[in-house]
Amino acid sequence: MDPSTPDDQKPLNPGDEGPADAPGVGEDLCPACLGAGSVGGVACALCGGTGKVLQGIGGG
Ligand SMILES: [Zn+2]
Q1: Cα 40 to ligand 1 centre (Å)
Q2: Rounded to an integer, what distance in angstroms lies between the CA atom of residue 15 and that of residue 54?
Q3: How many angstroms does the Cα of residue 41 sit away from the middle of ligand 1?
Q4: Residue 3 in this model has a pLDDT that exceeds 70
Q5: pLDDT at residue number 29
Q6: CB–CB of 53/26 below 8 Å?
Q7: How far, in Å, is the centroid of ligand 1 from the Cα of 20?
Q8: Bridge partners of residue 25, in order along the sequence
Q9: Can you tell me the distance from the alpha carbon of 31 to that of 7, in angstroms, rounded to the nearest whole number?
């Protein structure tokens, strides 16, 4: 009942520009691992191993 404690949110990855539910933000393939989630056998640091990043798609 306390909106100031969003403990349900997971931390953003370095490649994320904002939370998934934010307006103008959408999932996109990670440019570093191209959706693989890992680079050279190591978890991708940009997307955190998800293979996706959240990018602003609002443009302008
Ligand atoms: Zn990645």
Answers
A1: 11
A2: 7
A3: 12
A4: no
A5: 94
A6: no
A7: 16
A8: 56
A9: 29
The 10s digit of each residue's pLDDT in 6-45 is: 566 677 888 888 888 888 888 899 999 999 999 999 999 9
Cα 23 to ligand 1 centre (Å): 22
- Tell me, what amino acid is at 56? G
pTM over 0.85: no
| Cα-only R_g, the chain | 13
- The alpha carbon of 53 and the centre of ligand 1 are apart by a number of angstroms equal to 7
Q: Which amino acid is at 42?
A: V
Is residue 52 over pLDDT 70?
A: yes
Structure tokens at 36: 């693989």
Based on DSSP, count helices (H) and strands (E) in the chain, helices before strands: 0, 4
- How many angstroms is it from 14 CA to the middle of ligand 1? 10
